[in-house]
Design brief:
The protein is globular and about 80 Å long. By secondary structure, it is α+β, with helices and mostly antiparallel strands. A hairpin with a 2-residue loop joins strand 7 and strand 8. The protein has a five-stranded mixed β-sheet. Strands 1-2 form a two-stranded antiparallel ribbon. A two-stranded antiparallel sheet has the order 7-8. The longest helix has about 35 residues. Among the domains are: about 140 residues, Glutathione S-transferase Yfyf (Class Pi), Chain A, domain 2, CATH 1.20.1050; about 60 residues, no CATH class; about 160 residues, Collagenase (Catalytic Domain). Helix 1 packs antiparallel against helix 3, helix 9 crosses helix 14 and helix 13 crosses helix 21. Helices cover about 55% and strands about 5% of the residues.
C-alpha cells in the first residue's frame, strides 16, 4: 500500500503557541513545501480575480493582504535558517528557491486581472470610509504593483521578470561567497611570543578553537569575537596587518569566491530595473518610499554631517598619529593600527579599557538587563520556555507577557558564532503580528548575534560594544514584539527603512545610564555592582573619536549612493569606484589588496541598498527622542507609554514623521545628536 508522507511545512503547526516545529523539518521538505505553498497562494489569488462581484476594499485588498500566509511562514523559517544555521544543502536549496519566489512575486505584481481590481479600488478610494491603516494598506498594495511593473508593456514585463530572477540569485551567491571567505581563513599561531598584548580570555578562546580542530597553539579567524580583540590588543603589528588584509579582501581575491563581477552585475541590474520602471536611478526608486524621499536629500544630509564631523575627525586622527609616534615611533598610521592605538589612547585618557569592563557584563546578566529595562519601560515579563522547538541547541527561548499575564510574543535568542552562521547581528521574525477573525495573532521574534563564547574557565563576558549591540538588536525586537496592527504587512518593523533603526538605536542609550546599569552590570565573580567611577568613564568616553566614527559611517553611506544614486553602466573597476567615493572621508592610506564593496553585505545582500544613510538618519531621531526621556527621567512611564503608543505598536500604518511628531511634539532636531557626539 502506498502512503503519502505529510509535509509538516504545509500543515497547520500542531505546536504550543503555533511555533515552528524545527526538529520535524528536514531540508528535503523545503522544495516540495515551497512548490505546494506557491500553488495554494496562486489559488487564493484566483479567488480574487475570479470574483464576479465588483472589487471592494474587503474582497480585493484585504483578501490579497492575507493570501500566501503559509508561503510567508515557510519563507521566514527557511531564510532565517539560511542566515543562522546554514549548510551546503540549504544553500543549494536557496539557489533553487529564490528564483521560484521572485517568479511568484512577479506573477502577482504582473497579474493584469488582479491589478485591474486593485486599481479600481484605489481609483475610487474616496468612496470608501477607510481607517488610516486601511488607507495606508491600499496605498501600499497599489504601489506594490505600480512600482513593480504593473503598468509596463508585455515585453518590458518579461524583461523585469528576467532581471528579478537574476538579482535574487546574484544576491545569494554574493552572501555565500562572503561566508565561505570568512570560514576559509585561519591565523594559526604556535609561538606564545607572537601573542603579546592579547587578553587572557581571548587567548583561552583561541586555544579552545584550535583544540576543537585538533591543532596545537592558538587559532584566530575573521569571526568578530576573534578578529576584533586581535586587532584591538595584539602588539604584533605584522600579524595585525595580515589579519586586517585578510578581512578586507573577502570577495576580492580573483578566485572562485570573487564578488567583483557580482557587485557590478547587481548594481547594473538594479539600475536597469529602475529605468524600466521610469526612475532615473535605483536610489530614486528606493527613496520614493523612505522618509528622505530623494537622493538629493540624502546627499544634502550626508554632506551636512560630513562638514560638521570632518574637522573633529581630522583632529582626532592627528592626535592618534601623534600618540602612536610618541609611543612606538610609528611614522604613518595604517588601518590595522586604528583599533590598537585608539584603545591605548582611550585607556590613557579615561583610564578605561574593555578588559576592565567585561567582568561586569556577563551575557546572562546583560540579557537580564534588557529584560529589566523593558519591564520598567513597557511592563513586559520574560520567562524561559523549554518546551518549544529550536533550530540549534545554543538558541534560548522565552515567552513574553504583559502586566495582565497575556502573551505578547515568543522570543528566540541565538548568541554565539558557528560555521553555519553569517557574521554580524540582526533581528528577524518567524511569524508576524496581525489581527484576523477577531484574534490578535502574536509575533515570534528572534535576535541573532555573534558574541564571545564561554570558555572552560569563564562565562561569556561581553565587551561594552557587544553590550550596545545586544541592546540595539533588542530594540528592534521590542518593535516586533509590541506590534499591534491589523495587517501583517504594516506590522512591527515593516516601516520605512530610514525609520526602522529608531527603536533599535534609542534602546542603546540605556547602556550609558547609571540607573539602567545598576540593574544588571554586576561582577561575574563577586556580584558587585559596577562602580560609579567606571560608569562615569563609560559616559565620558562615549563621544571618544566620535568624529572618526561618524566619518566612517558616512563613508559607507556615500559608497552606497555611488553604487545606486548614479548610472553605473560605465563602471568597470570596483576598487576605482571605491577610491572615488572615499576621497573626502579617507583618513588612513588605502590598502591596495582590500575592497569594501565585495563584502558589503548590507547593500549587496541585505536590504540597505540606497539606504545605508539611514543609520545616521535614525541617530538624529534617536538622540532627539532620548532627550525627551532624559528630561522626564529615563524610566518615565508617561514618555515610555507615548513611545509605545505612537512608535513601537504602530508599525507602518502611517507616515513615520506623523508618528514621530505625535510622540515628540515636533520634528527631530539634529542638535541633540551633535551635542551627544561632541561635534557642536
Amino acid at each position: 500500500m502506498h502512503t503519502t508522507t505529510i509535509n509538516v511545512l504545509n500543515t497547520a503547526f500542531d505546536s504550543q503557541f503555533d511555533t515552528a516545529p524545527f526538529s520535524k523539518i528536514k531540508p528535503d521538505d523545503f522544495i516540495p513545501a515551497f512548490k505546494n505553498a506557491i500553488e495554494s497562494a496562486k489559488a487564493e489569488i484566483d479567488t480574487i480575480t475570479n470574483n464576479p462581484e465588483p472589487p471592494t476594499f474587503e474582497n480585493t485588498i484585504e483578501v490579497l493582504e492575507f493570501s500566501g500566509e503559509q508561503l510567508d511562514r515557510i519563507s521566514s523559517i527557511f531564510f532565517n535558517l539560511n542566515s543562522a544555521e546554514t549548510n551546503d544543502k540549504i544553500q543549494k536549496i536557496a539557489q533553487e528557491v529564490s528564483p521560484m519566489l521572485s517568479e511568484f512575486s512577479n506573477d502577482i505584481t504582473l497579474n493584469e486581472a488582479l491589478f485591474k481590481r486593485v486599481k479600481a479600488v484605489y481609483d475610487s478610494r474616496s468612496n470608501y470610509d477607510l481607517s488610516v491603516e486601511q488607507q495606508t494598506l491600499l496605498d501600499k498594495k497599489y504601489k506594490s504593483f505600480s512600482r513593480n511593473g504593473a503598468n509596463l508593456s508585455e515585453e518590458n514585463k518579461l524583461k523585469l521578470r528576467a532581471i528579478d530572477k537574476q538579482l535574487s540569485q546574484l544576491k545569494l551567491k554574493f552572501g555565500e561567497n562572503v561566508l565561505a571567505e570568512t570560514n576559509n581563513y585561519e591565523l594559526h599561531l604556535t609561538d606564545i611570543n607572537l601573542l603579546a598584548g592579547l587578553p587572557e580570555g581571548t587567548l583561552e578562546a583561541a586555544k579552545q578553537l584550535a583544540e576543537s580542530k585538533n591543532k596545537n597553539g592558538w587559532l584566530f579567524t575573521l569571526e568578530y569575537p576573534s578578529y576584533i580583540p586581535f586587532m584591538t590588543y595584539a602588539d604584533n603589528r605584522q600579524l595585525r596587518k595580515e589579519l586586517a588584509i585578510a578581512a578586507g579582501k573577502k570577495g576580492f581575491q580573483n578566485n572562485e569566491l570573487d564578488n567583483q563581477n557580482h557587485v557590478l552585475s547587481i548594481a547594473k541590474l538594479r539600475h536597469e530595473r529602475a529605468q524600466l520602471l521610469g526612475y532615473k536611478t535605483h536610489a530614486h526608486f528606493v527613496l520614493e518610499e523612505r522618509m528622505a524621499k530623494t537622493p538629493e536629500n540624502v546627499y544634502t544630509f550626508l554632506n551636512d554631517l560630513l562638514s560638521k564631523a570632518k574637522p573633529a575627525a581630522v583632529r582626532e586622527f592627528e592626535n592618534l598619529q601623534h600618540f602612536a609616534k610618541n609611543l612606538d615611533n610609528i611614522d604613518q598610521l595604517q588601518k590595522w593600527d586604528s583599533a590598537y592605538y585608539s584603545e591605548k589612547l582611550k585607556q590613557q585618557l579615561f583610564k578605561l579599557d574593555d578588559e576592565q569592563l567585561k567582568p561586569y557584563f556577563k551575557l546572562e546578566n546583560v540579557i537580564e538587563g534588557v529584560f529589566a529595562v523593558s519591564q520598567k519601560l513597557y511592563g513586559l515579563h520574560f520567562e524561559v520556555i523549554d518546551t518549544i522547538d529550536k533550530y540549534h541547541p545554543d538558541v534560548l527561548t522565552y515567552t513574553v507577557t504583559d502586566t495582565d499575564g497575556q502573551l505578547v510574543a515568543i522570543f528566540y535568542a541565538d548568541f554565539f558564532p558557528r560555521a553555519g552562521k553569517r557574521n554580524g547581528a540582526w533581528m528577524t521574525s518567524f511569524k508576524p503580528q496581525y489581527i484576523k477573525n477577531g484574534i490578535n495573532e502574536r509575533p515570534h521574534i528572534s535576535i541573532v548575534c555573534n558574541f564571545t563564547k564561554p570558555t572552560k574557565s569563564k562565562p561569556s563576558l561581553l565587551t561594552f560594544n557587544e553590550v550596545t549591540t545586544l541592546f540595539h538588536e533588542f530594540g528592534h525586537a521590542l518593535h516586533g514584539m509590541l506590534a499591534n496592527t491589523r495587517y501583517p504587512s504594516l506590522s512591527g518593523t515593516s516601516v520605512f527603512w530610514d525609520f526602522v533603526e529608531l527603536p533599535s538605536q534609542i534602546f542603546e542609550n540605556w547602556c550609558y545610564e547609571q540607573d539602567a546599569l545598576k540593574l544588571f552590570a554586576r561582577h561575574y565573580e563577586t556580584n558587585e555592582v559596577i562602580p560609579m567611577d567606571l560608569i562615569e568613564k563609560i559616559k565620558a568616553s562615549a563621544a571618544f573619536q566620535e568624529g572618526m566614527q561618524t566619518l566612517r559611517q558616512l563613508s559607507f553611506g556615500i559608497l552606497d549612493m555611488y553604487w545606486h544614486g548614479q548610472n553605473p553602466m560605465d563602471i568597470t573597476d570596483v576598487k576605482a569606484l571605491e577610491n572615488e567615493a572615499f576621497k573626502d572621508t579617507n583618513l588612513f592610506p588605502d590598502v591596495a589588496e582590500n575592497c569594501m564593496s565585495t563584502s558589503f553585505s548590507h547593500i549587496f545582500q541585505g536590504g540597505y541598498s540606497s539606504g545605508y544613510y539611514s543609520y545616521k538618519w535614525a541617530e538624529v531621531l534617536d538622540a532627539d527622542a532620548f532627550e525627551y526621556f532624559k528630561e522626564a527621567g529615563i524610566f518615565n512611564k508617561d514618555v515610555a507609554e507615548k513611545f509605545k503608543a505612537h512608535i513601537l505598536s504602530q508599525g507602518g500604518i502611517e507616515d513615520p514623521m506623523v508618528l514621530y511628531k505625535r510622540f515628540r511634539g515636533h520634528e527631530p532636531k539634529p542638535e541633540a545628536l551633535l551635542k551627544r557626539a561632541g561635534l557642536l
